[in-house]
Design a protein that fits this description.
Elements: H1 2-23, E1 27-38, E2 45-51, H2 56-66, E3 71-75, E4 78-81, E5 93-96, H3 103-114, E6 120-125
Antiparallel strand pairs: 1-2, 1-6, 2-5, 3-4, 3-6
Length: 130
């Protein structure tokens, strides 16, 4: 019985130690605004996300670690979009596009982001496919 308790204790400790490592790539940032914009060259609709200044350094570090990777943008645990991160996140403004998006699609996305409680958006990289 004592051996079983010791094993369970060790499993619990190991789980606690491994959990932060698994979640290390997740990032919660605060959104200032989400709006429809347009590409000046093509006229295609763009989603413009402006994050608070307090999120700037975290975005920069996250972006440099995940360039070329698909990233989920989540609100309250639900994925809203999952674009590929093609450029470093050097400031507080992010422009996201998809060739299939219409103005109405982007307006709907902007409204979803704008309704996020406390403006909190979770960014989570998806595992790279081999």
């Amino acid at each position: 019985m004592k051996s079983l308790k010791n094993r369970l204790f060790l499993v619990a400790i190991a789980s606690l130690l491994l959990a932060p490592a698994c979640m290390a790539d997740e990032l919660v940032v605060v959104l200032g605004s989400a709006t429809l914009d347009h590409d000046q060259r093509t006229g295609r609709p763009l989603l413009k996300l402006i994050f608070t200044e307090t999120s700037k350094e975290r975005l920069r570090a996250f972006g440099s670690d995940n360039i070329g990777q698909k990233v989920e943008y989540r609100i309250e645990g639900h994925t809203v979009i999952a674009p590929v991160l093609r450029e470093p996140m050097s400031g507080t403004t992010q422009i996201i596009s998809d060739n299939s998006w219409s103005d109405e699609t982007v307006i709907g996305l902007a409204q979803q982001f704008s309704k996020s409680p406390k403006g909190e958006i979770e960014l989570r990289p998806l595992p790279r496919s081999e």
